[in-house]
Amino acid sequence: MSMRDPAEIEKFISNIDHALLTVSEIRSSLRHFTQLVQSENKGPSFVHAFSDRLNSVKRDLNTLSSEGENLKGALEHAQFVANENKFNWALIKSEAEKEAAEEEIRFREEEANSAKAKETGSFVKANADYAYKQLSSIVLEQKPTSISVPLFFTTCINQWMSNKKPADIDFTVTFEKEETPTLTGSTCHIKISARKALVADLELEYEKYSDTLVVHQYDIKGVKEEKHFWQDSQYLVFQKVNLLATDAFEDMLVFFAKESLHNMLDWFCSYHNLFTTPCHRCHKILQFDSPQYRYLPPMVRTWAKKLPVAQSDSSVVHPAPGTAYHMRCYIEYKNNHAI
Ligand SMILES: [Zn+2]
User: Fold this and answer.
1) Above 50 in pLDDT, residue 126?
2) Ligand 1 midpoint to CA 287 (Å)
3) 103 backbone φψ class: left, alpha, beta (φ>0; ψ -120 to 50)
């Protein structure tokens, strides 16, 4: 094997440097992955975060294995030179001196620029910080740099409150847990309250890549009712609204995220007259439900729905979203219109 020229050796060194950087990236990815797995608080975004972190570990390992190929030349050369014991000391010395001089210049510049640089070992620290910052941008979660990016829920709810909420209806939306950005969008926990009608707790997630809304958990109950997510409402009317919400959300969530959220707010808002408006079909307020619960108000409010293409231009007139029905009247209506 022949002697290598300095340019080639420099290439070897840069390959080694790269591989070392990748190793430290892997350590960082692994550390964050482990932290995530061990974390106590596994929120709604856990699954996404999990696969995201796992992917960055995989990606770094792949990078390392391809960089391993590049190291072969350097390692062969090192072995050859070591066997021959023919190190070019003069070259090594001059290169090392050159590098030290360059580092010294950089150190002086930094010292001039920053008071911090006066600390002992500041050069090392500055370089470590720089490397860490570079790594963070690849490996770590994006921290509040996204503060300038408007948050989905905050923006959409504000838009709905100022443009779409009927002015005469007492209806509020509050953040129980403020909106939190995730790797794939954001999550929040909101409380919706329609005076004298109902309160709804919703844990929502916005998926920015698919532009969809996900409902992780919801709970609809009476205004003065104290209960936990996992308990059923003590009132039959809210138990039924909770069941109805499963169907309603399924239809509402096929829209893009903003429309889904606005439809959802429209729907909850249409419950403001839960106990006071008559049924669209039978025009009565109370309907006999059962000997146990006796009379119930119209607890159905129709919701926005994407119609199949065949139906969208048919002559059947669907009542506007928010129309009130008794559960039984609604089922009758659905059967009659085959929807
Ligand atoms: Zn009715």
Assistant:
1) yes
2) 7
3) alpha
